[in-house]
Write a structure and sequence with these properties.
500 residues, 2 domains, Growth Hormone, Chain: A, mainly alpha
């Protein structure tokens, strides 16, 4: 690298945003609008896919729509691994971030155009690739604003991640209202405008606010590696194109076969990651024990995210089709709730409850639950969030559900998320072998990718099983793993070799 970390940090104005580096304000704004565009589009995406063509939708089956929504989420997390590698080895975080923002904006613009399935597929491709470039690298740039010994760094990340929840909270209200009062493409256009605001702000202010941070790859390829990887990537791309052409010509290129491929990738990728680290000569015996301890935590993470991410497809469809949205029928209020608004419940409760959960862990002191127990609590609340949906089904018959049951389900899952998600990020860093310190966090992100890849198949069970049996099955599976993790608590704690 041409510049040391100290030189890069010193090139950034260290005040200007509530006592933090000026660049944090720019990145906060960019992330807010990027998350606004992502969660706004996702809030109405599944409806757009299965709504009738006459209503402006694509006319897909509900099961197919839910499966595609899961594949979409899985691929975004999977491409993040590629985006992180490209930034570290080839183009640097800043260029990766900007290229990603351009592709995401183009994807939302494509979705706002009334060109049916071709525009939809183009949009999905652009947003998946763009998110893979942007998602891991904007966080990396945030960390680069501070010296490693700077006490402000943790607080800076808290401020930054607030932008994620603020964007996720606001966008379903706006995009959902636009879709309800106008049409789907108007809602998607709002997401495109949000992303455009993020990109314009970044282009104008990034140079003076971010200095030298992220301009260069942290571990650039050597000349020999460039030749090697060029050959590998070229051959891989040609092979991939050949597979797509052959399957298309033989009629095998369908959403169903593609969903199976994504599911296989979701299962195989973490196995490859684990094996690569475990057999590495750079990993000590102590670190191998910690990797073994990480396996049940990883599986618990996959189970949790499987339930949490179904809030954007299974529960999203349930909100529209099975929930009483006409408040006049419930409270005598002349208003019909847009189904997309339910997507704001999760970030609302996170913003509301996060300070209390964080304070609780601090106050418990030596009685603070161990990492495996926090994971177990996450599974417990996630499982209960699905099982609670059985209660109104047993009493309401064919009537529409009271929306408060859905609110309760989201609330329970958020409590589980606050137990498991921050702990997962933290323990991934703590248990990481020294030689794979950065890649271990990528492995943690794969819990979400694997969960959504598996969901691409799980959601197909809703139709044959019915909602009641489906909620019971998934919720029961989570509680089963909750019990298993409780039984493994001492073993996992012992294998963690002093890490808590």
């Amino acid at each position: 690298m041409k510049h040391t970390r100290e030189e890069m940090v010193n090139s950034v104005p260290q005040t200007g945003f509530f006592g933090h580096p000026r660049g944090l304000g720019i990145l906060f704004f960019v992330e807010f609008w990027e998350r606004f565009s992502y969660y706004g589009m996702r809030a109405i995406l599944v409806y757009y896919m299965y709504d009738k063509i006459i209503n402006g939708g694509l006319g897909m089956e509900q099961t197919t729509a839910a499966s595609i929504a899961s594949m979409y989420g899985a691929l975004i997390f999977m491409t993040g691994i590629v985006g992180g590698w490209l930034a570290d080895r080839v183009i640097g975080s800043r260029r990766a971030l900007m290229y990603g923002a351009v592709l995401i904006m183009a994807g939302h613009i494509a979705m706002s155009l009334p060109f049916g399935v071709p525009a939809f597929l183009a949009s999905m491709f652009l947003i998946i690739v763009g998110s893979g470039l942007m998602k891991p690298n904007i966080s990396n740039v945030v960390g680069g604003l501070y010296h490693k010994s700077d006490d402000r760094m943790d607080a800076g990340f808290v401020i930054f991640y607030m932008s994620v929840n603020m964007g996720a909270l606001a966008s379903p209200f706006i995009v959902g209202a636009l879709q309800k009062n106008y049409n789907y493409h108007t809602g998607f256009l709002a997401a495109a405008i949000g992303m455009a605001l993020a990109l314009i702000t970044y282009i104008i202010f990034q140079r003076r606010s971010l200095g030298l941070v992220g301009l260069e790859p942290s571990h650039p390829l050597t000349a020999d590696e460039k030749v090697k990887y060029t050959k590998v990537i070229t051959i891989s791309v040609i092979a991939l194109i050949a597979v797509f052409v052959i399957t298309y010509m033989t009629g095998g290129l369908t959403f169903g076969t593609f969903s199976i491929l994504v599911t296989v990738l979701g299962v195989v990728l973490p196995i490859i990651y684990f094996r690569m680290m475990y057999i590495s000569r750079d990993v000590t015996s102590t670190e191998k024990n910690r990797l073994l301890a990480y396996i049940p935590l990883f599986i618990a993470g996959v189970m949790f995210w499987s339930i949490q991410e179904q809030g954007a497809n299974v529960l999203s469809i349930f909100a529209k089709e099975k929930t009483q949205l006409d408040l006049n029928q419930l409270f005598g209020i002349d208003f019909t709730v847009p189904a997309a608004w339910f997507q704001s419940i999760n970030p609302f409760f996170i913003v509301l409850l996060a300070p209390f959960i964080s304070s609780l862990w601090s106050k418990l002191g030596k009685y603070n639950p161990s990492t495996p127990l926090k994971f177990a609590l996450g599974l417990f609340f996630a499982g209960i969030s699905f099982l609670v949906m059985i209660i109104p089904a047993m009493t309401s018959g064919s009537e529409l559900y009271n929306p408060l049951w859905l609110v309760l389900s989201f609330l329970l899952c958020v409590i589980g998320e606050l137990c498991l998600s921050p702990t997962g990020s933290s323990v991934s860093v703590k248990l990481a072998p020294e030689a794979f310190s950065s890649q271990m966090l990528s492995l943690w992100f794969l819990t979400n990718a694997s969960a959504q890849a598996i969901n691409a198949q799980l959601v197909k069970l809703v139709e044959p099983m019915g909602y009641t049996n489906y909620f019971a099955f998934i919720g029961g599976l989570a509680l089963f793993l909750f019990v298993i993790l409780l039984l493994l608590n001492k073993w996992v704690t012992r294998k963690m070799e002093g890490i808590h």
